[in-house]
Predict the 3D structure of the following.
Amino acid sequence: MATHKPGKLVKAALEKAVDKVTELVNPPIPGAPNSEPPSLDEPTDPREPLPPKPDQAGPETVSPTGAPTGASQLSQGQQGDFLTTSAGARLYDTDHSLKAGERGPTLLQDHHLREKVMHFDHERIPERVVHARGYGAHGVFVGYGTAANVCRAAFLGDGVETPVFVRFSTVLGSRGSADTVRDTRGFATKFYTQEGNFDLVGNNIPVFFIQDGIKFPDIIHAGKPHPDREIPQAQSAHDTFWDFVSTHTEATHHVMWNMSDRGLPRSYRTMEGFGVHTFRLVNAAGETSLAKFHWKPKLGVHSLMWEEAQMINGIDPDFHRRDLADAIESGAYPQWELGLQILPDTPRQTFENIDLLDPTKIVPEELAPVQPVGMLTLNRNPMNFFAETEQVAFHLGNLVPGIDVTDDPLLQARLFSYLDTQLTRLSGPNFNQIPINRPHAPVNDMFRDGFHQHAVHAGVAPYRPNTLDGGNPFEARAEDRPLVEVAQPLPKAVKVRQSPTSFADHYTQPRLFWQSLSPVEKEHVVRAFTFELGKCYEQAIKERQLLVLANVDPTLCREVAQGLGLPAPAATVRPKKVTPSPALSQIGRTWPTDGRMIGIVVDPADLDGVRTLRETILAGGMVPLLIAPTGGPLNDESGLVAQRTFLTARSVEFDALLLAGSPPPGADAVPARDAKAGAPAGAVDPRVVLMIQECFRHAKAIGGWGGGRAALEAAGCATGPGVVIDDDPSAVLKAVTMLLESHRVWERFPATIS
């Protein structure tokens, strides 16, 4: 055994401690491609695959039938030092085909060529018809135990920790579309509970476009690109969408939400989630309640500005994906509280004259408060996007004891659709055996064979009853906590294709939503309708949608009509009086600033206070990004490194902007090289001026000190609400952080609608 001198051991320990302290005080900016930095030269000494980054995790290592294997998550990835075939034979060359001589034809016997190209040709699977564009993360859900009186589900028990995988998504766009389009967002959660998987498959909007699942192909066909030209991509601003929703007025409530700021979330981390449907809960005594599921983000509900979203789509189409991954990597773990609206289970299944089986209606939180039942924390990024995020399969029929479905006609159709779609997308019925979908509970389902069968089933009798396999599997008794459908009485009825009369009111709740918004949020709704309808070709569609808006609110209709240059029609339905629901507005409260991105414009010639400011921002759970004329170290003395340059930075990346200096035009500030430098040259780099002006008109907090004052003056933004100037950098940061708690400086641009 080797021996070491005590002095060397102490020195090594001190060096390790210093490295750790340095990492804690000066944590790395998220986004590193791998767990180790690359060498300048190509490595030639064989070594094992690199470990995953500290923020990454894969699916739990359970067998296809739910048994823990105890294996490392790394056992599911590539193994060994050397390149091999899929059968494990080591390869000495993968750059050249096997040919008859150096210039001869390629030989058919080249198995490696055929295998490599064959696999490449089949790497893509069909993307989801809807929710194709998505991103996921691993986490844990911890129950509070507060749901015990209404729901017997074990994962809601006090202190029970349940692994989860969450996938966020847009609805209309293809897998390669942009993140920040105006659209509904999916919020799907797979709970790997001890009683089997429970999938809560919801959206960031609590209502849906349609009341009956038979209309789902219609709304999606209308929202997707026109089938002749396959445009526009990932947006609703076109004729077929508005043709459908203007004639199918049950969509009006969802359209109102989609045209609000809810259609442009700032981040998945600041996005509310809803189960959409009404579910039936069962407690230990067999008593039932109706319930609606809510996810409440701990950071609050915040959105992008419309211009901001459009810019991001071109500058960084992966904005939401990157934001979530970077937040997790930097330790700013996103959290949501799961809440329930508990409603009495009456024969009519209504509450305060609201039909609980109508997925286009909400129950205002003022009538039925949301009761917290647990906390979700996302704390690990996937190790492999395809294996996890792309192959995860959600299904509303994945229920656990204590949670049952209702007769909501949209929910009933989804119970079929979510199962059926996996047969093609994941090539067969065994998709639950894919690692990301495997339950963490024992599986004994009597299903056999089929494409991609990973289990190796024993026995000879996959049927019941049997004696050859000792009677196994046995049906669960009451004391074994089986999943039992509620014995719900059915009314005397005849077979019909129609909806109840209670589904017929398509305007009262959209009116409730409109009247619950703040004036600035109403301005954004008017702008959204005016923009979207302004992109339609057919005048009749615009006029028809104005008739719909007239039945929602005359002010909304008048303002949109004015923007379209059309007369505002009169309402055809007498409006009902509504009581606004303050819970529907995103504005008026303050929230934590964890994970917020703070851009700091610096002049390498004047770095006074920047280091201390950066450390203070990090200590506050936010992420500072230094922006300088060029990348790399700012100077030899400071130890500071620029993460962005005037060429690569744009205002939309930051939640607030600080000016630590007024850097003169950089060497690359020429329009031929960077169009952002096209403004008339002055004492301050024109790209910095542009950045300030964009932040100002997007109602972001801006601060400056010392030389930064000149940059604000050059941009014409040295005064006004939300602009902080002080001689003390710490005082500026404190004031800007307080402004950030409200997300935007809304008072900078007063609304014209009351």
Summary: The two ends are 81 Å apart (CA to CA). The longest strand covers residues 371-382. The chain is about 25% helix and 15% strand.
